[in-house]
Design brief:
The protein has 256 residues and is α/β, with parallel strands linked by helices. The protein has helices at residues 34-44, 68-73, 85-92, 94-112, 114-135, 151-163, 176-184, and strands spanning 6-12, 15-21, 28-31, 139-141, 168-173, 193-198, 215-221, 250-254. It binds iron/sulfur cluster (SF4).
């Protein structure tokens, strides 16, 4: 039985029940009922729903407070973080900001305690799998807002990815130094993960050492761009797959 197997899917009074198993574990990681989902959300946070994205999005963290490097870049003119869309969203939709604060609390609990970390990993894997099954998608986006907090957080994110080999994880980050350190120490990027190293400067491409593979470099441009959804009239990724593809080295977005 593989990680993405939906073992049961029964409809009861319009509600569905899903049972998910993890690869190599043969243990049930979640049986979905509304009450069970609420407990999973308590452990891992609320998945973010971004209309542009085709599949599930991992729980967002507060813009600035949840971005170790990004918080500093917010006050640097010429950085994409200086016009952070997530910070604007937080102001426009305070309820989203409150949910992102709760997600950060759940993450901090997981970073502080191994038992909470196990709950966070399994709960998040289950929530992503369930959402992906419901949407008929395999593409997962991390950090619509927020970023990797530290090496321990990176390890937890990769545990979720390993537990869900049927999903493809796109992990954008401004934490270049953290990623480089981890890779030099022998970090193995799972085949279903694509890190996206974001540029700290608009109109400038980050140089990434070729010796550290498994990474796509992304830039933000005031001119030409390669992301189809950057066009003013296009609102969603649709069939575009560039950000998840292992054979695409760079993607450029339009500054918004
Ligand atoms: S490049 Fe493609 S996959 Fe990436 S954000 Fe743009 S439309 Fe979506």
């Amino acid at each position: 039985m593989s990680a993405h197997t939906v073992a049961t899917w029964t409809s009861r009074s319009g509600k569905h029940t899903v049972t998910l198993y993890a690869t190599g574990h043969r243990r049930r990681i979640a049986r979905f009922t509304p009450a069970r989902r609420a407990r999973l959300v308590q452990s891992a946070g609320t998945l973010t729903h971004a209309s542009k994205m085709p599949g599930p999005c991992a729980p967002s963290l507060p813009a600035g407070k949840g971005c170790p490097t990004g918080a500093r870049l917010m006050s640097v003119p010429g950085s994409p973080c200086a016009s952070c869309y997530a910070a604007r969203l937080q102001v426009a939709y305070p309820s989203a900001g409150r949910a992102w604060e709760r997600n950060l609390e759940a993450l901090r609990a997981a970073l502080a305690d191994p038992a909470a970390a196990r709950r966070w990993v399994y709960a998040l894997a289950a929530l992503l799998l369930e959402d992906a099954a419901r949407l008929g998608e395999t593409r997962v986006r991390w950090f619509v807002s927020g970023d990797l907090q530290n090496a321990r957080h990176l390890a937890l994110v990769l545990r979720v990815a390993r537990l869900t080999p049927a999903l493809r994880h796109r992990i954008p980050t401004q934490e270049q130094a953290l990623l480089k350190r981890a890779m030099r120490k022998g970090l193995r990027t799972p085949a279903n993960v694509r890190f996206q190293v974001s540029t700290p400067r608009v109109d400038r491409l980050t140089v990434w050492p070729q010796a550290l593979p498994g990474v796509q470099v992304t830039s933000v441009s005031t001119g030409a761009y390669s992301c189809p959804a950057s066009a003013p009239t296009v609102k969603a990724c649709g069939g575009c797959d560039l950000c998840w593809r292992q054979d695409v080295a760079t993607v450029t977005y339009r500054l918004h």
